[in-house]
Amino acid sequence: AMDTGPAEPTGSFPWVMPWRVIITGQKLSTIVESNLVTHLAEPSEVEDISWIKPGRASWSWWSDHDSPQDYNELIPFIDLAVEMGWEYSLVDANWNMMKNGDLEKLVEYANGKGIGLLVWYNSGGPHNIVTEQLRNAMHQKERRREEFEKLKSWGVKGVKIDFFQSDKPHIISLYHEILKDAKDYRILCNFHGCTIPRGWQRTYPHLVSMEAVRGAECYSFDPQYPDAAPWHNTILPFTRNVIGSMDYTPVAFSDQTYPHITTNAHELALSVVFESGIIHFADKVDAYLQSPEFVRSFLSHVPAAWEQTRFIDGYPGKYCVLARENNLTWYVGGINGQDVEQQVILDLPFLLDGKYMMEIINDGDSEKTFRYAKKPFKSGDRPEISIRPRGGFVAVLKSID
Questions:
Q1: pLDDT in tens, 50-62
Q2: What is the rounded distance in angstroms from the CA atom of residue 390 to the CA atom of residue 342?
Q3: Which residues are catalytic?
């Protein structure tokens, strides 16, 4: 067997050990709202952060795994991003086999429309037997910097690097090496098939997200995923997403190989309940464009970056309601992981005193439909909301004082 690197760590003195962290508190909010993992990481190594822009991305691979191999299949996803006001579009595996055009031509088209392209790579390396391409452009420094140089000259904004598949010391070093090089070329990074977040987003703020979660792609290859997803989704805000951005690729209204049993309002709420520096919206073009106008409007405006997060109510495996704030607008997302209705009280004691307008989208009469309402809300109000089985809701509160 080939040597794929030692399992045991080595170091030279003075030897600095990474933090080992336990977050504990008397209330679930202590955990959900914690930034401890990031705070314990080294301060940022990036002086000018003006090029690091969080945002939302369209993504063709989830609905059609072969789409990155056809220029004509990717154009509608760039146009979708334009239509929705999203910042990015992700070009996934095997784009180097593209027909009817190539990546350079695609970048030119996207940038001409004001959309930043994100491009997928296989991390490569001797330990990795996955054949998806582009392979072997990322695990050796010289080759990697060459690739970043080319991407930068074309105007690519970021990379998604996949299949690290190991926490051996040399692979952990590889993450740091990639992030250091990407910084030099102003390339955003998203890691998949990777380790869990370890606070590196503070040190390298261009690390926009990491997978390290069983996300929406599992609908395409795991027959057991759909039954688990409703309660699994309610556990993640208390666990995985506490430690850093999570690229779950949410908001899948249509079905992949194994149909979802979450309602469409549950799916919509994941855009607020889950946090990722770039949110990759999983679904196909029509799934979004044929949604009701109020759903399209919500997805056009929902931010990817938040100034503060508040835990409202919930319990892992049952339900979860979170509020997040960006630019003085509060977004509330709630999901139910159970097969029975869940009553929640929308208690928002942290709102500044005054009057608000609240828009609320929740489940309609069926699992695939929505209901929309707009009503005045004042600080101190505590309306009750009923979340249907495996359902969800979103609410947006804007001050009208």
A1: 999 999 999 999 9
A2: 9
A3: 162, 217
